[in-house]
């Protein structure tokens, strides 16, 4: 898993590198700028004779820009450097980098000079954004803020591609929200490790293609004390080796899916099919008695169990004992797909969340059942994996959706620790949090997955991996990653507009078998 930094964690890493590892600050800056320059040369080849405009601030990000300027000029580019400050305002390592740049520096000390910057940007082949680094809190202000506004306007009008250093200027390193105008980059060369804003939306959409540039700090030191990471393909592949030659269906577990009410039978069937496509040996849908024939007809491979129901066609609370008995012979349970919001079903869900002794995925209507009843989680008889979308998360917490979205990482972490659960807060950049406070961010998936049934597919996948014997955290990370990967494969075949949840299910085998 790749480490993901806050601004404070990045500052601490730099300080340790200098104080404990004896790596001088100028060497770190040289490695950062040199790596970024090599990326720019590759990405915008041929760079020779290209007009490159580099916009530098007075801090260390500007220092990185001066290194890039020197390296690009050595590669044959026609480099023009603007400093959004006076030379005398530049200090520390950035001043040393500025001193090594022997070309012209055009100082822009007030808004009157921004017209020259705009004209240069309009005539450039590539623009390098070295205005602000990871330390910005709130909107960019003053001269730099105005420069960003004009650069945004210029790029919207079809100006040249932008290479951002560390972070597109105007973004706050730690958050996905946009506090003010921010540069839209074509590529971002980020240093040492990922920053949260590069993975959290809507900020992440402004980063373009992101490449992590090593700056000479050993990987084990980079990862030290970091509690947030980005899921990699290898993190997931390690759980799925060759199947034993003497395997049988019981080897890969039996998942019980509890759900499916009148008008929502497809959800339970989708979850079962997703579980089987994810390698589970057996899947059984336990559903309302009147709906059982429909759920059975929706799939040839899964089994069904008919449960007592209320007149509205929903599972009755009286089914609790029967479900508990079924669960004892299963390896895992998925609760919620198509369950309904009838009070009987919600009460049943709370009973099962508390009492089922098997690992359980809790999703959809079963999550709504927990609103105002989160105490069910703390004393649950087995591991609980929750997969809410922001609306369900808000309902459980009794807050508005914007409050959930304001800090997805820390909100998910706090919930998982407080309630002793594994949590996947769904959305663009799904957040997976564990009871011990670790967080993993997922980068697979696409907007075409915003269709009814997609969440039921994820539930079936997570349930399958639990039934196959994966630890709760491993099961949830694998499900989230491969669900997104299957969605990406489905998009490649069907396009974002027309793809369906069933298309994601059919892509699961390829997601499992084909590494990125």
Question: Can you offer a commentary on this structure?
Answer:
This protein has 516 residues and is α/β, with parallel strands linked by helices. The protein contains 20 helices and 19 strands. It has a 12-stranded mixed beta sheet, sandwiched between helices. Strand 18 and strand 19 form a beta hairpin. Helix 9 packs across helix 18 and helix 18 (454-467) packs parallel to helix 20 (501-513). The protein is elongated, with a radius of gyration of 26 Å.
Alpha-beta content class:
alpha/beta
How many helix segments?
20
- Estimated helix fraction: 40-55%
Mean pLDDT: 96
Name the beta content range. Answer: 15-25%
Radius of gyration: 26 Å
Oligomer: single chain
The dominant shape is: elongated
Give the neighbour order of strands across the main sheet: 8-1-10-19-18-17-16-15-14-11-12-13
* Biggest sheet architecture: 12 strands, mixed
**Uncertain residue ranges:** none
Distance between the termini: 15 Å
Task: Pick out its properties.
alpha/beta; twelve-stranded mixed β-sheet; elongated; 516 residues; 20 helices; seven-stranded parallel β-sheet; single chain
């Amino acid at each position: 898993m790749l480490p993901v930094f806050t601004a404070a964690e990045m500052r601490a890493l730099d300080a340790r590198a200098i104080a404990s590892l004896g790596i001088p600050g100028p060497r770190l800056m040289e490695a950062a700028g040199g790596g970024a320059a090599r990326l720019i040369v590759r990405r915008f080849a041929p760079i020779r004779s290209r007009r490159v405009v580099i916009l530098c601030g007075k801090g260390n990000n500007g220092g990185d820009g001066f290194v890039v300027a020197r390296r690009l000029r050595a590669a044959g580019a026609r480099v023009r450097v603007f400093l959004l400050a006076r030379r005398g305002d530049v200090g520390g390592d950035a001043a040393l980098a500025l001193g090594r740049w022997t070309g012209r520096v055009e100082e822009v000390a007030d808004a009157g000079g921004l017209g020259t910057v705009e004209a240069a940007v309009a005539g450039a082949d590539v623009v390098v954004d070295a205005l602000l680094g990871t330390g910005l809190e709130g909107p960019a202000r003053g001269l730099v803020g105005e420069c960003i506004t004009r650069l945004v306007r210029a790029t919207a009008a079809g100006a040249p591609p932008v290479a951002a250093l560390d972070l597109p200027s105007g973004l706050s390193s730690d958050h996905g929200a946009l506090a003010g105008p921010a540069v839209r980059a074509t590529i971002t060369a980020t240093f040492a490790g990922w920053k949260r804003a590069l993975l959290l939306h809507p900020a992440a959409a402004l980063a373009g293609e992101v490449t992590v540039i090593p700056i000479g700090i050993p990987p084990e030191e980079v990862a030290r004390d970091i509690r947030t990471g980005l899921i990699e393909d290898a993190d997931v592949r390690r759980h799925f080796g060759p199947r034993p030659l003497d395997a049988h269906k019981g080897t890969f577990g039996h998942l019980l899916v509890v759900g499916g009410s009148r008008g929502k039978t497809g959800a339970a069937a989708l979850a079962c099919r997703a579980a089987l496509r994810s390698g589970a040996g057996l899947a059984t849908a336990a559903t309302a008695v009147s709906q059982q024939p429909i759920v059975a007809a929706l799939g040839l491979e899964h089994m069904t169990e008919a449960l007592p129901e209320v007149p509205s066609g929903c599972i009755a609370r009286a089914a609790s004992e029967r479900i508990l008995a079924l669960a004892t012979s299963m390896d895992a349970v998925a609760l919620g797909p198509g369950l309904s919001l009838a009070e009987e079903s919600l009460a049943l869900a709370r009973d099962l969340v508390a009492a089922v002794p098997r690992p359980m995925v809790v999703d959809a209507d079963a999550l709504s059942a927990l609103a105002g009843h989160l105490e069910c989680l703390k004393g649950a008889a087995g591991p609980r994996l929750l997969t809410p979308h922001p609306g369900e998360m808000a309902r459980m917490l009794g807050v508005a959706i914007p409050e959930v979205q304001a800090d997805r990482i820390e909100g998910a972490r706090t919930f998982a620790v407080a309630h002793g659960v594994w949590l996947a807060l769904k959305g663009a950049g799904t957040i997976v949090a564990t009871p011990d406070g670790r967080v993993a961010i997922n980068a697979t998936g696409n907007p075409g997955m915003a269709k009814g049934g997609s969440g039921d597919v994820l539930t079936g996948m997570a349930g399958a991996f639990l039934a196959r014997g994966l630890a709760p955290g491993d099961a949830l990370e694998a499900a989230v990653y491969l669900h997104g990967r299957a969605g990406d494969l489905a998009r490649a075949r069907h396009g974002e507009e027309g793809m369906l949840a069933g298309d994601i299910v059919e892509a699961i085998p390829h997601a499992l078998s084909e590494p990125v």
